[in-house]
Amino acid sequence: MLRLLARRLAAALPTLAGVVVVTFLMTRALPGDPAAYFAGPAATREAVEEIRRQLGLDKPLWVQFGRYLADLARGDLGISITTGQPVLADIAQRLAASAELTLLGLLFAAGCGIPMGVAAALRPNSWVDHICRVLATAGVSLPTFFTGLLLIYVFYYVLGWAPAPLGRLDAFSSPPPHVTGFYLIDSLLAGERETFGAAAGQLALPALTLGIFALAPMGRMTRGAMLAVMSSDFIRAARASGLAGRTIVVRYALRNALLPIVTTLGMVLSFLLGANVLVEKVFAWPGIGSYAVEALIASDYAPVQGFVMTMAVLYVALNFLIDLAYQAIDPRVRIEA
Amino acid sequence: MSALAHARHVLAGNPVTGLAFALFALLLLAALAGPELVPYDPLASSDRALSPPSALHWFGTDNLGRDVFSRVAAAARLDLGMAFAAVALVFGTGTVAGVAAGFLGGWTDRVIGRVTDTIMAFPLFVLAMGLVAAAGNTVANVVYATAIINFPIYARVARTEANIRREAGFVEAARLAGASTATVMLFEILPNVLPIMMVQVSLTMGYAILNTAGLSFIGLGIRPPTAEWGIMVAEGAGYIVSGEWWIALFPGLALMLAVFTFNLMGDGLRDIVDPRRRT
Amino acid sequence: MTATRQPPLLAVEDLSVSFRTRSGTVRALEGVGFTIARGETVGIVGESGSGKSVTAYAVMRLLDPAARVTSGRIVFGGLDMLAADEATVAEIRGRELSMIFQNPRASLNPIRRVGAQIADVLVRHANLSARAAAERAVALLAEVGIPDPARRARAYPFELSGGMCQRVGIAIALACRPALLIADEPTTGLDVTTQATIMDLVAALGRARGMATMLITHDLGLATERCDRIVVMHAGHVVEDAPTEALFARPRHPYTERLLAATPRPGRSLADLRTIPGGLPDLRRDDLPPCRFHDRCHRRSVDCALPPLPRRVENGRLVACRHPL
Questions:
Q1: 20 to 30 Å CA-CA from B44: which of A126, A255, A281, C177?
Q2: Do A152 and B240 touch (CB under 8 A)?
Q3: Count of domains forming chain C
Q4: Most A CBs within 10 Å: which of C57, C81, C117, C166, as the mutation test of the A interface?
């Protein structure tokens, strides 16, 4: 088992290498003067030259790459001009906010999308099926930022159910003692029920926005996978054994359908991590997405680079986890490997 | 059954696809003639700021008194144009690369595979952000970035198709007749792969539109005061919380309509070209 | 088996089934009727596409959603299978009436251990606890001749050979001691030696439990070896129904005669085998002749314009032909 893990990890390494190389090239090899980027728009010519010397941008490319790798190993992602802090510190501070949001969105998407897909597959061409398919296509067509704004308008402005989209907590609450960085978990751990309520309230709309976006591919994939599985021989054989409907759908069909669904998760995550940026901007969420967007507007370059790198590494790590999950579900991969 | 008759047969059985084509015609009209036909100048401000939809201003006015309807209709050219440029670019490069990878195999396949995998290692929108930020905040770079992040899917589909047809009879025949590898690729494989790639074009047009709009929403690409659906939503975002919903709603709806149309069209085209793959 | 005056275990009467497809309505079964008595082994024989499997699925009420039973009755153990509700039928399936399939590995859940799959049926029908079911599953695996059953119970189908998968299938089907086992081409996907052992196993288990068997096969030779009675089907019709020896000795339907002539037997060389001309008619046609063998038959006459309703010939024999041998 451990050997399998090691082998899978080794397979992920070339991808990580690719990520590092690309992020490096993105800053050094693209048109424009990297030094000017890092120095910022307000820098004087001397300041730009100073930065150029400091960051070694006057050295040959391969020397720069070596330096880049060394910096990465030290965790040095540069300094943000706007905050004045090391980028890594900024990101570490804000990562939990993004993670909590994205995870909740994913949970919502899976929690609604999968049952919807199952329901649609069990009654093909019924009105349930058609509604699910229309919802799915509509969900895919809506820009995430637009969905977010719509939700704010309906639930905050019109109905007044949701709190003002001002960030992770409302004006009256303060963050719970830091354990994981996830306000929902930390507030429960500290027994602060009002904080939990406040955090949950603020999380509702942005998580819903993200969730709606991911709901569509999950629902569609579940429907397709379930349809394929339900028409297979072993399902017919299970029915011939008189097994109860629920046993067949959940234990026999859905578990098998989960395999292609889990594979889709990778793609869904790619979309989610991108949509995360847009949602954070709409809801003023203090995560790494809005960090990057603010830095972009201020032409503060190092945070953007750090952000891309972090997201990519996260994505590789999550894909690795998905791969492991797949193997946990499918014994054929596990045993034959 | 001729191709046209087959197409008509499918459309008859699927009125939704017919609707999609009709909407596409409408969008095309807006893109081609929109800026010339709109009632107001999209850039002209007035003193009737923030007025809700009325007979005078069908979609209301924004914070600078500009007519939202005119801006939305005029923006069609820009949004559709950018998406189309990106898709055309990636269609050309992705198809050729994919066909080469699938047909030639070996090193070509491995290199192109590596490029594709590297692109896919990033969450795609994030990669686009990074590319535009690195290369400079221009419209051209937004188009290039959108093309790059769509490259993997085109290359992959083309590669699969080329792979399937590699051993086909007509390919053998061409080779025996003395055609060079390049000729076989260009004149035998490519034309066969095109129909499926066209389906892919329609499906990714929607995604490209969302992408360019998303990038401009966060300030990359088009800049105010140009009328573009993404920045219009961004400009209208601040007014949602005070109840002026029309500034962001109509450009958002336009976006949704465009993407929806291309998705439906893509599904319909797929039914025409390859009904086996129907979802 | 001596014929007793008991009501038959399974009675199929005048069954007609159609399928709606994109290219038309397929009249898959028309007027199919036969009976199976308790403990009897009946073979349903015919070419691919003759409707044998459709009949089996109709009996189990496992037809495709696109299928329509347009007429007929299926009575199993006194229960009208077509009129009963799904819950009642689900109770019977796996307990009184079960099935084994042509592709044994594809008929098992690929990501569930085989012991667990047997236990599922036991928990469902025999009301056993999970642990008791697991133990009984191991015992069943031993009964079907799988060596080292305790270890094998934890195996996944992909780790077992085709023959072993079929044994597992048999264990599942026989777990609750059904009165009737439907075997749909159970050995077609297996090699010859395994075929014989599997058939022996089914026969032995059947005999020991007084179980009836409906053996579906395209192999007339296999049917004559294993069955008490044979029902010959052609293009959705039952054409002949007779005890094996009588059928073998003296076929009455021209199609049966052709089938026998095309079946390899010891003592016959390949050169002796004769093919049956033509192929099955297209069952979507509106102008199907009343006798669906008409176009391929060398004995067709003017009488054949009338429907060939099944008629009793000798004791226990039925032929559906206007011009029988």
A1: A281
A2: yes
A3: 1
A4: C117
Q: Is the pLDDT of residue B243 over 70?
A: yes
Per the CB < 8 Å rule, is C156 touching A244? no
CATH number of the domain bearing residue C223: 3.40.50.300
* Residue-level length of chain A: 337
CB A31 within 8 A of CB B135: yes
> Bridge partners of C237?
C234
Q: B219 contacts in A (CB within 8 Å)?
A: 293, 296-297
Count CB atoms within 10 A of the CB of residue B254: 24
Query: Across all residues in chain C, what is the average pLDDT?
Result: 89
Please tell me the predicted confidence (pLDDT) of residue B278.
44
Query: Which candidate from A153, A281, A292 shows the least CB-CB separation from B240?
Result: A153
Contacts of C190 by beta carbon, 8 Å cutoff, 6+ apart: C104, C162, C163, C166, C198
- The amino acid present at A295, given as its one-letter code, is A
Q: ipTM score here?
A: 0.88
Task: Tell whether C14 is covered by a domain.
Answer: yes
Which pLDDT score is estimated for B9?
66
Chain B 124-163, CB below 8 Å of chain A: which residues? 124-127, 129-131, 133-136
Which pLDDT tens digit goes with each residue over A72-113? 888 888 888 788 888 898 898 899 999 999 999 999 999 999
The neighbour count for residue B114, using CB atoms within 10 Å, is 12
Question: Do A155 and A161 touch, CB atoms closer than 8 A?
Answer: yes
Question: Cβ–Cβ of A274/B126 closer than 8 Å?
Answer: yes
Q: Rounded CA gap, B93 and B83, in Å?
A: 16
Question: Among partner residues B122, B136, B237, which is closest to A32 by beta-carbon distance?
Answer: B136
**A165 contacts: CB under 8 Å, gap ≥ 6:** A152, A156, A202, A205, A206, A282, A283, A284, B241
- Residue-wise pLDDT for C300-317, tens only, equals 788 787 788 888 877 778
Does C273 map to a domain?
yes
In a domain, C228, yes or no: yes
Instruction: Name residues 184-223 of chain B within 8 A of A (Cβ).
Output: 206, 210, 213-214, 217-220
Given an 8 Å threshold on Cβ–Cβ distance, is B241 in contact with A146? no
Pairing of the two strands C41-45 and C212-217: parallel
Give the residue from C101, C107, C121 with the most A CB atoms within 10 Å of its CB, the best one to mutate. C107
Separation of alpha carbons B151 and B186, rounded Å? 19
Domains, chain B, ordered by start: 3-277 (1.10.3720.10)
Q: What angle do CA A219, A223, A226 make, to 5 degrees?
A: 135
The residue among B266, B148, B248 whose CA lies nearest residue A30 is B148
Residue numbers of the domain that contains C91: 10-96+178-319
Q: Do A237 and C121 touch (CB under 8 A)?
A: no
Q: Which residues of C touch A243 (CB under 8 A)?
A: 90, 94, 120-121, 124
Enter the tokens of residue B159: 């590669």
pTM of the model: 0.82
Q: Which residue of B has its CA nearest to A305?
A: B130
Shortest Cα–Cα distance, A19 to chain B (Å): 7
Contact of A152 with chain B, judged by CB distance below 8 Å, is answered with yes
| Closest listed residue to residue A43, CA positions, set A299, A314, A269, A321 | A299
Q: Which chains touch B (3 or more CB pairs under 8 A)?
A: A
Which percentage of chain A shows pLDDT scores above 70? Answer: 97
Pair of tokens at residue A225: 């996978």
Has residue C108 been placed in a domain?
Answer: no
Searching chain B, which residue's CA lies closest to the CA of residue A274? B125
User: Where would I find the beta strands (DSSP E) of chain A?
Assistant: none
Which residue in this structure is represented by tokens 């500009």? B66
